[in-house]
Structure formats: structure tokens, C-alpha cells
Fold this sequence. Notes:
Blueprint: E1 12-18, H1 26-36, E2 46-52, E3 62-68, H2 71-77, H3 86-94, H4 96-108, E4 118-122
Antiparallel strand pairs: 1-3, 1-4, 2-3
Amino acid sequence: MPHAQFDRQARTNRRRQYGVALGLAPETFEDFITGNIHRVEDYPGWKFHMLKGQGGSRLDQYAVMLEIESLDSLNAFHPELDVSTGKALTFVREHQESERMYEEWRELASFSGAPQLYTDYITIAGNSG
Length: 129
């Protein structure tokens, strides 16, 4: 069953939490991400953000936030948990530099893979500010 029964054009955000490999200095991970972000090519309509906790219960820990333009866009690539469509698989095959970067990332920190731990958030309300 595809994600939620909300407005198909509503903006969606996916958040995944990551942990740096045991014994690795956080600065090493941050240097890797900032030095290689240009290698990340995401699906059309998806925007990648690496976040670092600046307060609260995940202080100095990392998360990725993917801004996804709509539920339709999410479902076009991943209609269910740990399910990739043919469109997603084709995109990955055509963007091998991103895949190589992700392989290097796996050496430094936890990374997505089935089963994944993430949350998809859909915008249900917001102000115009």
C-alpha cells in the first residue's frame, strides 16, 4: 500500500539518524561529508541535507533530512518500506558516483539499507513565513 492517504502533492520529509563508527572522530566524518556532498545526486524533486544535533537528546549526532517535493515523488521511487521501484533502480544504475560515495560513507558511519530506520513526515499544516 503506498504511503498515506494525504494530498498527493504535499511536501514530504524523510529523516534518518546516523552514528559515526566507533573510534572515529566526528570531525573526520564531517570533513568527509562536506568534502563529498557534491557527489550526492538524488532523485529528481528530492533534496539532501546532512544535519548535526546542536541541542536536545541527539546533541552532536547526525541525521539526514530528505526534502521530497510530494508524496507522488516518494511513491514513484519507494512506495513502501524497503521497496524500490524500477525507476529507483534505474536511477541508481545511472548515478554510480553517488553509489561509490555511499560505499565510502559506510566505512565511516551507519548507513541506510534494509531494514531501514527512518521516518517519513508529511506536511499537514504550516504558516507562510
